[in-house]
Design a protein that fits this description.
The protein contains 10 helices and 7 strands. With about 210 residues, it is an alpha/beta fold. Strand 3 and strand 4 form a beta hairpin. The longest helix is centred in the last third of the chain and has 22 residues.
Length: about 210
């Protein structure tokens, strides 16, 4: 049975709830926003700042162009604040702090939501590939909009635009800090439309699937 599960998800697809339910069903640790607090302690940055920064495209994009690489593929810890004589942008410091935390979590079975965990773990030498399962949860736009209104209290008139903007930010963040494309099927072991079975049954289906892996 796979011991490390990552959940990447579109906004409004129910991926976080699905991830938490799967973790509870399997008796695994669950990490989502908890990583923000851990990264704050690791980096010395405020948790509120990390929350606002972690999915915004930053000057790290320029650094990636300069270096011709991405930070996710390097063995860089949160303590690395400079490249040569250049100070590392705050957003890059946030990413590196979260990366270090994510790598420290996988000593025990766990489910990790978001934060490029799929790429970080897939490209790491610290993780046995046979232990890792990367899942992408998506849903039809109308369903995501309805969920955004019902569960996240997004005003109905703004919901469609909000869903699209959040997904765009997630894609920009992932595409900036990794060498892959967010949502590209080749980066995941399993892609699931949560619309097909609904949140509860999707959670149960994934639980049974993981038990058989």
């Amino acid at each position: 049975m796979k011991k490390i599960i990552t959940i990447s998800r579109e906004f409004g697809s129910g991926g976080r709830v699905i991830g938490r339910t799967v973790a509870e069903n399997l008796g695994y640790d669950f990490y989502d926003r908890e990583i923000i607090d851990m990264a704050a302690e690791e980096s010395g940055l405020a948790a509120e700042f990390i929350e606002k920064t972690e999915q915004n495209l930053s000057s790290g994009w320029l650094y990636n162009l300069l270096l011709g690489t991405s930070y996710a593929g390097q063995n860089v810890g949160a303590g690395a604040q400079q490249i040569g004589t250049h100070a590392l942008p705050l957003a890059d410091q946030v990413f590196n702090a979260e990366r270090k935390i994510i790598l420290s979590l996988v000593t025990k079975p766990c489910v990790i939501v978001g934060r490029c965990a799929d790429y970080i773990l897939r490209t790491s030498d610290f993780v046995k590939k046979d232990d890792l399962l990367n899942i992408f949860i998506y849903a039809d736009l109308d369903a995501k909009v309805s969920r955004a209104v019902e569960h996240y209290k997004v005003p109905e008139k703004d919901a469609r635009k909000t869903v699209q903007q959040v997904d765009k930010r997630r894609a920009n963040h992932y595409n900036t800090f990794t060498e892959d494309v967010w949502g590209d099927r080749k980066n995941y072991d399993l892609l699931v439309n949560s619309n097909t079975l609904g949140i509860e049954q999707t959670s149960q289906m994934l639980t049974e699937f993981i038990k058989r892996t």
